Fold each of these.
Amino acid sequence: MTARATEVSAAGVHKAAVLGSPIAHSLSPQLHNAAYAALGLDDWTYGRFDVDEAALAAFLVGLGPEWAGLSLTMPLKRAVIPLLDSITDTARSVEAVNTVVFHADGRRTGDNTDIPGLVAALHEQGVDKIESAAILGAGATASSALAALARICSGEVVAYVRSEQRADEMRGWGERLGVRVRTADWADAERAFAAPLVISTTPKGGTDHLASLVPERVGTLFDVVYDPWPTPLAAAWQHRGGPVLSGLDLLVHQAVFQFEQFTGDRRPVLGAMREAGLRALG
């Protein structure tokens, strides 16, 4: 256990939680509490709070010294940045914070664990270096996917988007992150399937119409949806024998990084988190 955990332990009770709106669907409490139980951290609790952008500042002010950290989901990932003392280079690269750590001296720091979470999930699947990739969609998750690809992709990334505005945004993110991005029209999204790695960042239902177009030979698919699972696209991909990662893979890997920052405990909890996530999803 690191000094960070020792400092927090002085308060006797330790709290963390996920914030967002809506938030009832979040699996984060199950994942983090399973990790606490697995390691015998009986004085740690992790909850969830429905907090929107307007209420965020007051919520942070009201937190006591027992609070170690927060996980953030939409719509708070950018709204929190002005309320923090500093953010990491990783968070700054995509202008999004999903992790807030409270320090003993009162500082609040922000990080983004989605990006290393994506990289770690791909690494677990054996995807460490690739020559090219495709992204389906152009929202906030797509920018995190680009940041992850900046670490492992040596060549071009093709982003399939629905509008010229989204295309401009993805090209802008590519320039900022040092990734060669070419955009293509969403109507041609099936062409993405020729890439060795396809990352689908659309919400559930967004790629259902593409399931019947999956070719016989495929690379790796990372579909960030986790409920319902498998998506029609993921099921079709698995039928072709291609490796598939789900949103749960991303969720548990990014949660491990959060757990370590909140507690300072580096003992392995990935297995306990994944089991809890699978159990919660039925």
Amino acid sequence: MRASRLLAAALLAGLAGSAAGAAVTVVDDAGRRVTVAQPARRVISMAPHATELLFAAGGGARVVGAMNYSDFPAAARKIPLIGSNSVIDMERVLALKPDLVVVWHTGNTARQIAQIEALGVPVFHSEPRRIAQVADNIERLGRLLGTGPVAAPAAAALRARLAALQARYAGRPPVTVFYQVWDQPLYTLNDAQIASDAIRVCGGRNVFGALKAVAPQVGIEAVLAADPEAILADKRYDPGDPGLGLWQAYPGMTAVKRANLLTVDGELLSRPGPRTMDGAARLCEALEEVRRRRPRQGGSE
């Protein structure tokens, strides 16, 4: 009897070991199949948002190298840097012996990605352009890391928060929004960027969402012609700052007349990671305030 139990235990242990070492394949945001022979243990993150996604998926301790600006959570600041968005130290990358690299097509140069792919290391392209895709990224990275018990509930919690925001705000009267990324020159974002998805979730509409470029340059005249109900800028601005205050020279604009020059933490909205939900929640509250500032029917401004 005892021998039978020992044999059964050995067989179970062998099966568990085989499962743990089984190859895992996922499809990344570039539509490519990414396969790891076993759960990734040494990961390099090529973008700040990817670093946040890896931590959310339960793999923070496995990130052995990261790009500059990988500053959240606090533990990410201790990760050795392997370069910036313009140049990477390939010698350092090689020395770190990664078994998975997470790249960002929009933020990394084609040359950087080609250098990484030439190493023959599994490469996961992370490009969330919708808040729902952040949860998908967390889940898939969790599979590659073998950290599903952490990644799955994290993704589920994010989806639940998103569903709650959509249920509350998607049917609200629409608010036209100009998202000011920079003022000299004047840049905005189109609908392919995750910040615009947050605007949409909150019942807003990006007035330049249909433009082809992800971060198009626009003129003041174009903004005046669009006459957005709200102008949204990074928190580094305040209504008195010349960057956002430039619109005070145009008192006839709806956003100016109604004091709808808004600021939000651009890192929360534009960095496509798990904190995008926090940015979206704050934005929804701000757009609801914009609705409350509308003149009553029959009233005047």
Amino acid sequence: MSVDIKKRFDRIVEILIQLQSKRIVKAQELADRFDVSLRTIYRDIKSLEQAGVPLIGEAGMGYSIMDGYRLPPVSFSKEEALCFVATEKLAEKYLDQAGFSLYSSALMKIKAILKSNDQDLVTNMQEQIIMRKQHVPIFPEKVPHVLSTAIEAIANKTQIQIEYQGIKDDEAILRIIEPIGIVHEIGFWYIVAYCLQRMDFRQFRSDRIAQVTALENKFSKRHISIDEYMSNQKSPELPKIKSKILVSRDFAPFMRWQRNTYGFVSEVKVGDKIEMVFESRDIEHEFPRWLMMFGDKIEIKEPEELKHSFNKLFQAIQNNIK
């Protein structure tokens, strides 16, 4: 079998698996996934139909497989089998107790169809991967099902009742919310929901929820999607300001871990130093505060506004330690 024929065969098999995993799959979605043209996807779909796979749909509308048709259990490669170990460790860390129990149950069924050698390989690798827990728990111990309850409410479009203590609240406050999505950032899960008390959308951090109760009440009205909410949250972008920082060559590697976050553009060697160029939208607060960590190892070349912000922070620190 030639390389091109094998590549096409593998793609067609993966398309069939994709069709079994969703009710409707659009041709463009498949073309994007496999990085091929729509014409190629239409040809592959035709091949599946000629092979006797009962497909429903047409170009431009999407495709689905007739109910009741299923392939025999899918086999996994050794590399795919090993990925199960990593995903299980990630699930243990980032899912709540209820969600992880369901995930483990589903994964156990998948592992059951692995070849014996691959099962042994997965078992042996489980103890070799360690996921350290966060210093601050993602979910409170008293509410081990926050995420699972929110996900179910989003799917069923039903309300949930929570006791939530915001960062400025002295104690937890009872709220009824209508979740529209979940966001993970900065190490925490946030439930994005319409709050009936505030009559507006809010983000509720998982570790600040003291209690959660699923309600049978349906949403009070139709809400925007999570994508629309996130788009509306974006602040107008400020213009980027170019900055040049000189760093001692022996210390430059310590700045490389986080510099992309602050608009790093390039670096060049200048004598015994490294000149780093940044384009940042915030040279008054975040960027100078980050640079402050490396204070005695850097020299700000430009612009003057950044020098002023840096000196202002330095002066404030001096005033606080008198």
